[in-house]
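Collaborator request log, item 7. Partner lab (contact: R.S.) asked for a structural prediction of Retrovirus-related pol polyprotein from transposon 412 to inform their binding assays.
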Amino acid sequence: MANALPHFPPFKIREDELSAGTRWKKWFQKFENLITAFDITDENRKKTLFVHYGGDEIFDLVDTFPAAKTSTYAALKTELESYFTPKVNTTFESFKLRKMKQLSSENVDQFHVRLRAQAALCSFADADREILAQMIEGVTSSKLRKKALRDRITLSQFLSEARNEELTEAQTREIEKTDQACAITRSNKANTNKRSEKQNTPITSKAKQDSGRMCRNCGRIYPHPQSKPCQAKGKTCMACKKPNHFAKVCRSKPKAANVRQVEENESSDEDVFSIKSNKKVPTATIQLDDHPVSCIVDTGASVNILTKETFTKLKKKPVLRPRSTAIFGYNSDQRLTVLGCFTTTVKHRQKNTTAKFFVVDGNSSSNNLLSGDTSEKLGLIKYLNQVNVPTDLYSGFGKIKDLKIKLHIDDQVPPKAQAHRHIPYHTRKDVEREIKRLEEADIIESVEGPTPWVSPIVIVPKKTGGVRLCVDMREANKAIKRERHPMPTIDDMIHDLNGAKFFSRIDLQQAFHQLELDQDSRFITTFSTHIGLRRFKRLMFGVNAAPEMFQQALGSILHDIEGVTHYIDDIIVHGKTKSEHDASLKKTLDRLQEKGAKLNKEKCIFGVQQLSFLGHTFGRNSISPEPQKVKAIANIAPPTSVSELRSFLGMTQFVSRYIEGYATITEPLRTLTRKSETWKWEKKQGNAFAELKRKLTNVGVMAYFDPRKATEIMVDASPHGLGAMLIQEGRVVSYASRSLTGVESRYSQTEREM
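Returned to partner:
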């Protein structure tokens, strides 16, 4: 029978290392189909054929495995699957799922298929629930989203509603197609005539007041009607950057400047202003469904414009929907041809949003326009306070001077050189590039000769591409003695920031790597890669003592500067006045520059009056939970297991200081976490879950504690918990509560309140 077996292609590992995992899965499925078709059931024979058909590369690879892992067909299969299949980071895959939006080129069913494939990598306990939640957030139809939020529906019901809506939309477009041009003309005829009359007076590029006929701020007819005030109010001039006027009437500019602005008025018309000159305008390259498009960034524009030429070049052309909106050139009653509009996902770097684009007839891609609202959502527009930061603080890689970190090693713990973990072939090039980068930055070095400690590495993909090398220090940490340096608590931070009205946050670039390791402390950081052993020359993530050591080291640098506090690598500069804050900020930046530290420009914030930090938002006179934390908790679905419930309670405990009666509200939920209780989600748990989220989403702001003010403490007791409220001058400073033990809950009400 062996002679009757057909030819079967061997598996070539090096053919394409990046796709080795995917190709292996497909090849192995074909092999199992072969042995099933020929009714081969003997385990030894299956193993022999497996190695034979695998080819020379598989044979050589299997020869390197321990004998115990190749003794049976099942064991060999498991070992090879582990070798070729890259480790899946479920947290990262879940993050990717949360970012997924419906593309303009796909229908809801196609969006569902993409979500289903991604959810398979996330190990969700209830995949349908997670997919439904993301579909509600990610669909382009706001009508469908509103219906799903209003009515509690299942995933199948949601898909059915979506299909019906898409079918209705398609039928409506077909019916309206022949009448579209006439409909647009009829809907705008009156507005076009009115506009022609209003704009009959020519407008020059000079900023001269036309004897009461022209507004000196916006260039339109003056006085303005009460229903339509000056359009320039609150806008910034593109010529002189000063507020409350447009560049076309700017009195500071020597000549006509580039102005491109789209404005909405009471009618359905849209004005597009375009005054040409040689002055350079700000542009940005955005991604429309992964297709790069260059646009002019206009802070005054209210709609997004795409030319026909650009639209035809899109890889996935979205369906254009008819619209009666008319777009006019500046100072003209000549209406531009609007071909239609579409809604799509827009991306710039790591930010994305959903935006509507109007497609107009035109052959120049330089006339694509990005509105102010969309630009702000994509992070292209920011309102910054001017701070003179030395440029060298942002360049290069930092190493703090005159400071070396010594790890204290316990000699009683025997060294352990762990076995090398195979690195998947498709990631090896990325790993080699990262190793080279770290060597060039003087962060790691090659290891020669024998070494008592060797740790394996874990490869983690970065959001921006490439990989991050994480050393598994669990065994080595058993020998590293921790320095019990006190870490600041949130109460310490609140006390330090009390009375501050101006804030800055300074973030150090790869902070731990800026501290050099003592020569005698480097050997324990040795790790293995497929190109040899390396070890760290700088402090690294994964070392159990790293946070405390870094906290102490940075404290020794900044301890004598007033108005500065820090938590590990985040430095907070604060002051009661702008001048006080600026003085502390300058001293801090000068000290960091002197010590050779480097900053992360993207994460630094300067001179704001409200700052989010450690899950809390600190303002001039109050603190509150960070809005993103509140939103995350508010969007959590009811838990389906004890572990999910514990995670939810852990998140809410973090903000319990803002919730009155927290212990009493959560009592039905905490009951389910006891080992003696059987999981049963009932109405009382549902009510407690909803009440807790309601309390959190409606929470007010808290005052800072001031030791100079009169303080009141109000206390109360319930059958399930104790509560307290700290008040100063009628404002709540903090809530506190704790649950009662079984014995305490049997006390009388009088005893509980004593």
